[in-house]
Amino acid sequence: MAGVFLPLRLASKPHSVRIADVIRIHTLGGLSVRGDDARPLTGAASQPRRMALLALLARAGERGVSREKLLALLWPDTDDERGPRALAQALYALRKDLGADDAISGARELRFDPAIVSSDVAEFTSAVARGDDSRAVALYEGPFLDGFHLPSTDAFSRWAEQERAALAHDYARTLESLARTARTRGDNAESITWWRKLAALDPLNARVTVQLMEALAASGDRAGALKQAHVYQLLVQQELDLPPDREVLILAERVRQSNPSTDAPSGPIRPSEIPDRGATSDARPESRAQPSTESQRTVASETADRIPTPAIARNTSTKPQRDIGRSRRFELAAGAMIVVAIAALGATWARSVSKHRASGDEQSRPIVAIGRIAAFGSDSLRSNLAAPVADLLATSLARVPGVRVVSQTRMLELMHRVGTTGDTAAGSFIDVARRAGAAEVIDGTLYVRPNGTLRLDLRRIDVETGAIGDANSVEGGDVFALVDSGTARIATTLGANAPAGSISEVTTRSVTAYRMYAQGLRAFYLGDMQTALGFFDAALAEDSSFALAAYYGAKADRVPSTSGIRLERAMRLATRATDRERLIILAGWAYSVSAPALRQLAETLSTRYPTETEGPLYAGIARIYEGDFLAGLEPLERVLRMDSLGINNVHRMCAACDALLWRVSAYELVDSLPAAEREARRWLRLQPGSVQPTRALMRILESEGRTREADSLLGITAAMEPRGAVVDLKAESLIRNGEYAAADRLLDSQLRQPDLEQQVEACWYLTLSAREQGRLAAALDDTHRWRRLVGEMRHTTRPPISVLEAQVQFEMGHSAIAAALFDSISRQTETAYEPSLVARNRAWMLAQAAGARLAAGDTISLSRLADSVQMLGAQSGYGRDRRLYHHVRGLLLAARGDRADAISEFKSAIYSVSIGYTRSNYELARLLLRDGKPRAAVAYLQPPLHGSLEASNTYLNRIELHELLAQAWDAAGTRDSAAAHYAVVARAWAAADPMLLPREKAAQARLAALRR
Length: 1012
What we know:
Blueprint: E1 23-26, E2 32-34, H1 48-60, E3 65-66, H2 67-74, H3 82-98, E4 104-105, E5 109-112, E6 117-119, H4 120-129, H5 133-139, H6 154-184, H7 188-201, H8 206-218, H9 222-240, H10 246-258, H11 293-302, H12 324-359, E7 368-375, H13 379-397, E8 405-406, H14 408-418, H15 426-435, E9 440-448, E10 454-462, E11 468-476, H16 479-493, H17 511-525, H18 529-542, H19 547-556, H20 560-573, H21 579-592, H22 598-608, H23 614-626, H24 633-642, H25 655-669, H26 673-686, H27 691-703, H28 707-718, H29 723-736, H30 740-751, H31 756-772, H32 776-791, H33 801-811, H34 815-827, H35 835-855, H36 862-873, H37 879-895, H38 899-909, H39 918-930, H40 934-941, H41 958-972, H42 975-988, H43 997-1011
Parallel strand pairs: 1-6, 7-8, 7-9
Antiparallel strand pairs: 1-2, 3-5, 4-5, 9-10, 10-11
């Protein structure tokens, strides 16, 4: 997140939507509607209640669902008139957006036409009914409507929960059927696969545990069978406070006796041996006598390709070992060391765990962070495996319900902030964890055994006291199995349940991909975006479904067009990420496309993961997006408290920098320039020498009319900014202050530079300068030159010149041409763009078209345009877009002579008095002047002059603002203020095109009269 999203310049070029020919409704594992190109549909098919309607129809399948049931589930509180009307409107909008009237058919019973609309849930149900278990399992990607919630509709929530349970039951039956079929034909490996999936769904089911144990034992993996019994015993004890099922105990004993040399991690625990929860004794299963090192190696070797389970508790050394010989001696000493460590610390931790379990308060569990993972062995091992293990362990622990973990990206970010990336001492990690709000740090040592099995010795350290709270050892056949085992062990000691499935299912199955990703993160937080992007792309080349690599690649990419494509890809892959990373990806996507979901995603992030800065940062931004500017200040201030270290560096990524930028913008949006200046100066004190706060302060000083102070800052930034950026800043300052000749000379010199992008920027500002001078024909020529230059560029952050061309045509009085251009631009959107961006672009352009049509004498279409703009604006999370339809209605009412209602509509249209849609201010002020309220008109005309020359202010010539402001002050009897603004008009339009000369002469005449 490099900068403010507010449209100080327009978003890059508009994009369009293509209606899909074949619709696919996905309900298993989430809820989405996509076309045959797998892209999400826009419009009605992305609104929650209508999405719920699609889900109901998808679940109903061929039998359909009655209108009465739909009304009861989706509109339970409406009356007999409003409910059916709302349903009819929803169906109309859905059929339109699905691209076919026949997509939803039926009179009383509604159903999809299967030739047009397909769904995974209907195909899953069909596969189950015909006994095609393999197809059913392949279709079941997760719980029905997972993560989808429809507020204030309890009936729908209950229905969804019932259907979710029924479908999960069908899924479990298909898994069991596949497992038994595989066992019947003697394929033990496949049978184990299916039983494992079923055990992950229902880990407390004794019958499933017995079946999995039998399959493991039949395949010769007796150790695996005993480990499964051990996991089941621990879960039953922790979750249900009950003894394990006798069938599991009997089978475990039979398996052990069939091969006495193969031991279980702690041996099967008999019911009489299960410790009392309330006791403070340290006689826990993991503290029993341990098998020998050789038996451990045998167990690990036999289960290297299977889902790992918690391994043997064992103490670890506080120092990394330096050679294999010393490692062997360390292993032999481990047995004696563990007795001392567990005896000293076990009772205290048992009391802590008992307290958490008894209270049921998951928030009372400590926040943990992953510290230093040292590699015992070669340097290549350290660089290739240690970092991925740390990252993966933090990511995996975040999946544990109720456990709060500081993400590894946050730890890495803070390590860079305090400059400890080169310091590998455990104390450095503890210091950083303390700053991140963690109460405990988990560090460890990584080993590779001669047979290739990995071992990880873990210990828990209290951040405040430095006391070691627990020590364990886990093993695995690969990095992912090792992390799964470590997660299960840590979760157990924290009094939580291990997450279902493997970490590889929500990250990547490629160790190489994860190594590339870890390297990319380090470069990213060092500010080396080019290197970071190379690593992220390399990770995606290894695993194209790696969501986090795609997301951080989008953040590292500085080219807007390709960055947007990367972010869209990350969003599609987010279902393969953990809950925290999925929320961060979706929130980042919602922020970039101004989606309405941003606030909800931000609040969920803040609640579930309070140690991460993204939650409060996006929460503050979302409030500002919505127009509640001052309410966004508090969460942004929270980011500053969390990331105060980020301000220390002027080049690296910084959440605190983003928070300060948005705080400055919030004050600008309410036109509180003194407060904005204070905030900018605060930022500059915290981050002296940084470009961003310097530019922010310079912009505010310009708005306050303190040109000399702003120029002094421009001299400071010249050493930090590229030449083109400095020229742009200086040119904008000159144009704002009416020094057009100087601005044009500067920009003409920029046009002669070899850099094409500098030429494009110069041409843009030349167009703005010519417009302010009233030289509209010259401005139109500049738009044509701009168009040619942009055609030679691969990408640009500028909007298509046709936007500015249409505006110039409008100001020249060519209203019909302008309306046609705006209409055309509203349809020039690309299929790759998201619904909220498509909607906001169309709403914005149609609002401009409405003004042009009115000027051309067309009032008939304005009512329809207002409805369209209202519908489109509602799909955007940006408050200005949601208010635009009031502007169109205000135009229509003013044309009809209904000034009172028109004034009300224009007031409702205003998002920000200074950085909103300036034409709303202008039209409102004109009406207030006619109503004899000149000072009220002044209040709406002055703030836009504090805003940018661009963005929303592009759609009104600033000299017209001065002209109307002069008339308002004149009507109010304030001669000096009126004269000042008449002087601006006379000076700017001294060489204007003939069509503006009468207005220039009128300003001159009134100025002379006021000066007499």
